[in-house]
């Protein structure tokens, strides 16, 4: 089995946003909105709303949203939670709890939640023991491996390219066009 990708997007402080690109991830492959829509089956409007409400803030370049692999994985997880009838406020509450589990994220294979609590587990026997010990089995089990496999099956986008600095005046723009021709 492939191990799930890590969740840096879950731990991002929504107030910081993702407008700037770090030097390390400048050439990391990024998914366009159309690619994310195809992979996750979310609508462009949902992605826009989640950006506006700071649930997930992707990098923006020339007014286009670009998603890293971890952000695409996070969107798959959010879609799975919404498909199981969790509200956005419950998803946001789970997001806050997942920030506390940062060291466990890369080893986790299953996510168990009842909407108010999130439990990350990495062995099937532990999952069964956990569920057997609960008197009221109202937990939803989400396979993080299955989400990772869905993302792995999608074509990998090309690495992000740095655009040359934009001309500041019309004269600079015309000069740049002449040099490039």
Radius of gyration: 19 Å
Query: For the report, how would you describe the main beta sheet?
Result: 3 strands, antiparallel
CATH topology of the domain at 8-89 and 144-180: Multidrug-efflux Transporter Regulator, Chain: A, Domain 2
What ranges have pLDDT less than 50 throughout 5 or more consecutive residues? 1-23
End-to-end distance: 51 Å
Q: Report the order of strands and helices.
A: HEHHEEHHEEHEHH
Share in helix: 40-55%
At the first level of CATH, the class of the domain at 8-89 and 144-180 is Mainly Alpha
CATH architecture of the domain at 8-89 and 144-180: Orthogonal Bundle
Percentage of β-strand residues: 5-15%
Number of helices: 8
- SS-based structural class? alpha+beta
Strand order of the largest sheet: 1-3-2
Quick one: how many beta strands? 6
- How would the global form be characterised? elongated
Average pLDDT taken over every residue: 75
